[in-house]
Design brief:
The protein is mostly beta strands. The chain has two domains: about 400 residues, Beta-galactosidase, Chain A, domain 5, CATH 2.70.98.10; about 110 residues, Immunoglobulins (Immunoglobulin-like, Sandwich). It has six helices and 35 strands. It has a 16-stranded mixed β-sheet that branches. Strands 3, 4, 8, 9, 10, 11, 12, 17, 22, 25 and 26 form an eleven-stranded antiparallel β-sheet that branches. The chain has a four-stranded antiparallel β-sheet with strand order 28-29-32-31. The longest helix is centred in the first third of the chain and has 20 residues.
Amino acid sequence: MFSPLSRLRVRSALLALAACLSLTAPALSQTAAQTAAPPFTPALGPAQAFSYDILTAKAEALAQKPYAAPVVRNPAAYDKIDYDAYWRIRFKPEATVYAGQTPIQFFHEGTYFRTPVGMNIVAGGQARHVIYTPDYFDMPKDSPARAIESHAGFAGFRIMRPGLKTDWISFLGAAYFRTDGADRQYGLSARAIAIDTGMSTPEEFPRFTDFWIEGGKDGLVTIYALMDGPSVTGAIRMTGRDADGQVLDVSTRFFFRKPVARLGIAPLTSMFWYSEENRLQGFDWRPEVHDSDGLAMITGAGERIWRPLNDPPRVVTSSFSDNNPKGFGLIQRDRNFDHYQDDGVFYNKRPSVWIAPRGNWGAGAVQLVEIPTDDEIYDNVVAYWVPKTMPKAGDEVALDYTMTWGRLAPVNWEVAKTVATRIGRGGVPGQPRPKDQLKIAVDFAGPALDGLTAKDGVKPQVSAPEGVDVINAYVLPVVGTKNWRMIFDLKTPPGTDTVDLRAYLEKGGKPLTETWLGQIHPAQMLALGKH
């Protein structure tokens, strides 16, 4: 049996895997599709009045009823629609459905996606249900999916670019979704909500049960979703377009059937195995493997923070208390191909996602959950906002935000950024190395440091917990680059598990860099250093 956390990791990996299989299916151009077959007219249900207010009322009314778990008919048949069988089911490009000018294609059900979602097209305040038919899909005559066609439905959808060759956003599984960012390379995922993530009890995965899609002018699209789960229902609205990356304005209204122990707003799910910081943990030919390399934050007070991600020795949950945060996100800062050397999955092109709250979010914390991994197939990092007060049965939570999928955080950082974190043996080369010390080297770069020299009074500021010694902290410009390097040794008591550090560079009492929040696991790193 999987532990709750293992189930989280495996589930996330399977969602991403199945999505990738569908997303790699070849698609004809619109012209070719029209030539290959007569025009496809989708079967639609009768028109019904629709708005976000109507959807919100529907979610609120649903929360007043006991939760009804979806029933899977003929589960043995779904068992047979495995990796290989699912890959062979292809959406017919000529069956593409349009919401205005927005082209939509659907995902078929399979062993990992056994519960259908309702699909609706919105125009002029009216919604019409898209009726499922097997005619949307090509599948082999011997496909096990044919055994479920009498009761099958759509598992999710994706919005295509003009020409129908690639998509830019997809929804498949639970309440997950993702876009491909500015460099058109899928990576981390987002969710509508996180319930009891990283706890000893099983995590709850509410699911999108129905979607409504409304196409607008100049590529603008609005996606509405109804969400349902044992503890919560929700009405979600996302409005955005595909450009140099994607910007989505998100509105959420959640209604709670029962209290939850941990509520995560705007959750992001990613993968981090190893980087230059913990290279010894990755027994692999590539220099680095990760979808994101850090958690970035701007606090309500305006402090810029960078927390490098870890592959920890155990599940670690870190909380960063704040009031009305200005933004946070999981960022892939290192975009140099040479640092990854992977021309198959292009980690250097993976999108970053930035969450910018709209309105008053009040007191709470940005929370980061990191789960140990030994492979790149698992999503092992989750970040989200946790309100200070947890909801009770009957409560409503309404928080809005703007989500930007791009190369970096879409804000003026003002101070120099962390560009690398490295850890190695402490001490001095040529002398006996202390067995209880690590050397930490952090590189910063940015306009705030440009033009300064070693004579200009740039100083490191490093703080550590009581009982942990910071030894010989100094800073110097790195010859031949614009980087500045802060170096110090970290001495810890025997068996120390986790150390949280805080550091930045300053001149004349004024910060020149963001605040680097390093979480070091000395026992893990010292053990690796012996090999």
